[in-house]
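New to this. Please check this record:
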Amino acid sequence: MHYMLFGRRERAIRRLIIVEDEPLVAFDNEHLLSEAGYEVVATVDSLAEAKAVIEMEPLDLVLSDIRLNGEGDGLDVARAAAARGVPVLFVSGHCPVEARGLGLGCLAKPYTEKTLKAALDAIDALMQGETVRKLPAGLSLYEKA
């Protein structure tokens, strides 16, 4: 049994992939999440790359923008992740209605580092069957279909 610092329970989310087409945002998120103790398996900017990683790697979460480079979008990434049983948190300036059935929720851009960490904590608690009472600003959770 591993214990996190400060007596925190073990995270459900350890290995994740960042799917983001803005290089600066992708770099910042990768750095921030690595510092926060997550294992960022890959940071990619297209559906094709995301699918390749999702199919090859065991993942706990996909953090995906809606708009991506090339063919396909974050909704397609979510469909690929769902086929492997991997949950998705969308991160987008515009969270489309059709994302509802595909992800756990959506974090609105722009957001702060603190908000991103808090959103991941909320998603982690949700994945462990806990009730999340207070959501960080900009995070909307989707009801399970």
Notes: The chain is about 35% helix and 20% strand. Strands lie at 15-19, 39-44, 61-64, 88-92, 105-108, 139-141. The CA atoms of residues 66 and 74 lie 4 Å apart. The chain has a mean pLDDT of 91.
